[in-house]
Amino acid sequence: MATTKAKTVFYCTSCGNESPKWMGRCPACGEWNTMVEAPAEPKAAAAGGGRAGAPRSGRRPQQLREIDYSQEARLSLGMGEVDRILGGGMVPGSLVLIGGEPGIGKSTLSLQIPLMCKDLRTLYVTGEESARQVGMRAKRLGGDDSNCLVFCETLIGAVIEEAEAMRPDLMIVDSVQTMYTDTVESAPGSVSQIKEVAAALLRFAKESGVPVILIGHITKDGYIAGPKILEHIVDVVLQFEGENRGSYRILRSIKNRFGSTSELAVFEMTGTGLREVANPSEMLIPMHEQGLSGTAIAAMLDGTRPLLFEVQALVSSAVYGTAQRSATGFDARRLNMLLAVLEKRAGFHLSAKDVFLNMAGGLRVSDPAVDLAVICAVLSSNFDFAIPPDVCFAGEVGLSGEIRPVGQIERRVQEAARLGFKRIFVSSFAKVEVKPEGIRVVKVADVPALVKALFK
Ligand code: TYD
Ligand code: MG
Description:
Elements: E1 8-12, E2 18-19, E3 35-39, H1 43-46, H2 80-85, E4 95-100, H3 106-116, E5 122-126, H4 131-140, E6 148-152, H5 156-166, E7 170-174, H6 191-208, E8 212-217, H7 227-233, E9 236-241, E10 248-256, E11 264-270, E12 273-277, H8 280-284, E13 295-302, E14 305-317, E15 325-328, H9 332-346, E16 353-359, H10 371-383, E17 391-393, E18 396-397, E19 403-404, H11 409-418, E20 423-427, E21 440-444, H12 447-455
Parallel strand pairs: 4-8, 4-9, 5-6, 5-7, 7-8, 13-17, 15-16, 17-20, 20-21
Antiparallel strand pairs: 1-2, 1-3, 9-10, 10-11, 11-12, 13-14, 14-16, 18-19
Helix pairs in contact: 5-6, 6-7
The structure holds thymidine-5'-diphosphate (TYD) and magnesium ion.
Thymidine-5'-diphosphate binds near residues 105, 107, 108 and 137.
């Protein structure tokens, strides 16, 4: 028996970069303390299932114009919002990753799909729960007359063998962290196992044309479980997020080879599973008739759809030496920049104030059009002056305090009018040609002009 030490390599859990020695900081992605040790993959597995010297697959390059794409009929998953996020249903042979923190509802969502589409032949592979548990959950979700087979297995080779024999219309694998392959020695859930499992599923999906949904856990700090490296392998990444305490869940597409990203759908977790919220604006806008100070409604765009929601701010005198600034669902650096603009360009002294900012419904926002609502919510709280409930905002704020126009303003105005808003504040450079009935578009050039129009 050879006495040589088993060879190990180090992987970055954030980007999957491989290195022969441990490093405190990954040179590829710059993350700190993400390198973990794992046994080196056998060369044969690394070279694509030991086919290194074997003849190729027999495929040939094709002329672009001769490629037949007509069979790309999409598979509907029975939930309109999920289909919309995927870009109109699931593409045959695609691998979709649904990521999210434990307990957010990934298993619930994926089990609801076969229950909704009763004649879809589904193979539901679970490495997390027993068949009994899945059965109980299906009963709770209100239907077990589906065409779904539950398979409790964690060896990926056996899963693929079964799937090849069965050729289901859809395969669901819950979760990537529990699956393993025996060609790699490390424990299930390690970086090299996750890479191998995902690659094997991708190969199966592409060769058989069976669409595969893969579930992956993300820990609170976002990387240990490894789905970051998975994102490069799969075709579509859907992220499931929301506050565990609240009942609303947001499904967001962050990568999509077959549709647009930054699409978003809202679900409500009820006693009988997840329910689609067709009109998220209505849920994200507060019920209180009387305006409270410190809130402002932003008209943001998620992907292609306008979405109105409430921005909440609390400004109070700092108790300790340095003022605190905290933002939930919004970039904290951007909040600091907006506060500096208010200080320098409009003369509001906020440096001795604590500022807390929150986006309603657990949303995470990156649309710059929300800037205007953020500064209005901050000023509203600071002066304890309620903004009328029928006013909303869509504009980006620049460093010199100017208000800049944002994309697709007409769609935002239309959505605001549809929801009964009477006034929308936009940049004076915004081009709003089609004005819906019942809403007044107020154009403001800079922060002082906005303050004058709103608070006086
Ligand atoms: P689950 O789908 O198991 O989460 P994940 O697979 O992402 O870890 O969801 C678990 C939570 O959802 C759990 O806290 C209970 C709740 N839940 C409901 O509120 N209603 C339901 O009908 C179901 C099935 C789950
Ligand atoms: Mg689960």
